[in-house]
Design a protein that fits this description.
With 332 residues, the protein is of the alpha/beta class. It folds into two domains: 22-117 and 203-331, Glycoside hydrolase/deacetylase (TIM Barrel), CATH 3.20.20.370; 124-191, no CATH class. It contains eleven helices and twelve strands. Strands 1, 4, 5, 6, 9 and 12 form a six-stranded parallel sheet that branches. The chain has a two-stranded parallel sheet with strand order 2-3. Helix 5 (124-133) runs antiparallel to helix 6 and helix 9 packs parallel to helix 10 (278-286). It binds zinc ion. Zinc ion (ZN) binds at residues 87-88, 223, 227, 263. The site of zinc ion has 5 residues, from strand 5.
Length: 332
């Protein structure tokens, strides 16, 4: 944002926060330590532990259903309310985050993408990293057709490969799941590697997911079946992608799903590209979902749109940085 829009945004929040104290929804993806993390999705277990300790000491961490209760009834959230959320359903959520949450008695809401649960396959953005950035000997150029458009990339040096990786990320995130699958199949044969993923990047097994759902500190929500930018899909496909993850989770866990988050979830307009749109909100309502999170910077008040709530992405911040950022999130 520019300086003027920043100032207008702050002034708007200042007025809003006089009327009602703000709440903040935090977004995590992974709690683990990785050899490399080009999407910066992992928070180290030590930082996560310190972050939760700080939240417990200085904030009011709510359960997902408490958070929903206030929003649905239009009742002001308690002062300094925080909701902790996780996207995607990585195995480390069960193996590394849950023990820390349990030790600190801190609840969180986990949004699960279902298509790769209980498999050794990686999410496509990780798979792309595996193919391109983990030392495979690659051809010097990549010619690939995606969605009917021909692309040519230089992959002769490691910095060219890194640039190509980020360029492909930017293209594929707005493609349909079928187009992404086709592109990945092509890349496997181009790089001469297989489709099996790394154990460090797998999603939860069904047993791990059930163990998560049994914890008093865990709420489960859905996050589509194959993780597309739903805003790029026609309404019926949006309904299908969101509905399929809801159905699978409800049948696995034998409990109704009320929560959903949009994959990627930013609301910036990138030409004709959208992570979600009015049809996405309509599909969530049609499916009976009660609370839906997006992924843009902002505070929550009871008048916020319950079908596109802002969330603040947490990076692998040491505790001092986390503390000062939390203060800022609440002031804005
Ligand atoms: Zn996601």
């Amino acid at each position: 944002m520019g300086k003027l829009s920043d100032a207008i945004f702050s002034a708007g929040n200042f007025v809003a926060n006089k009327i009602q104290p703000p709440a903040v929804i935090l977004l995590y993806h992974r709690v683990t330590s990785l050899a490399q993390d080009p999407q910066e999705l992992a928070v180290s277990p030590a930082n996560f532990d310190a972050q939760l300790q700080h939240l417990q000491a200085d904030y009011n961490v709510l359960h997902a259903d408490q958070f929903l209760y206030y929003l649905k009834r239009g009742k002001p959230l308690p002062k300094r309310s925080v909701l902790v959320t996780f996207d995607d359903g990585y195995a480390d959520n069960c193996l590394e985050a849950l023990p820390i949450m349990t030790a600190q008695a801190t609840p969180a809401l986990f949004y699960i993408t279902t298509s790769k649960l209980n498999t050794n396959k990686e999410q496509w953005w990780d798979d792309l990293e595996r193919v391109m950035l983990t030392g495979n000997t690659l051809p010097a150029t990549l010619e690939i057709t995606i969605n009917g458009a021909a692309h040519q990339f230089n992959t002769a040096t490691s910095s060219a490969i890194t640039d190509t990786y980020y360029a492909l990320q930017a293209i594929l995130r707005f493609c349909s799941p079928d187009v992404i699958d086709q592109a990945m199949q092509y890349l496997y044969s181009w790089a001469g590697c297989g489709a099996d993923g790394r154990p460090t990047h797998r999603m939860m097994t069904f047993d791990e997911l059930r163990a998560m759902a049994d914890s008093p500190y865990v709420h489960i929500g859905c996050h589509t079946h194959r993780h597309p930018a739903v805003g790029m899909l026609p309404y019926t496909q949006q309904l299908q992608e969101i509905g399929q993850s809801k159905e699978i989770l409800e049948s696995l866990l034998q409990e109704p799903m009320q929560h959903f988050s949009y994959p990627f979830g930013g609301r910036k307009f990138l030409g004709s590209k959208r992570y979600y749109n009015a049809d996405s909100i309509k599909a969530c309502k049609e499916l009976g979902l009660q609370m839906v999170c997006a992924n843009y910077y902002g505070q929550v008040h009871t008048w916020s749109n319950r079908f596109a709530l802002p969330r603040i992405l947490v990076r692998d911040w040491p505790i001092a940085e986390f503390k000062s950022r939390m203060e800022r999130f609440f002031k804005l």
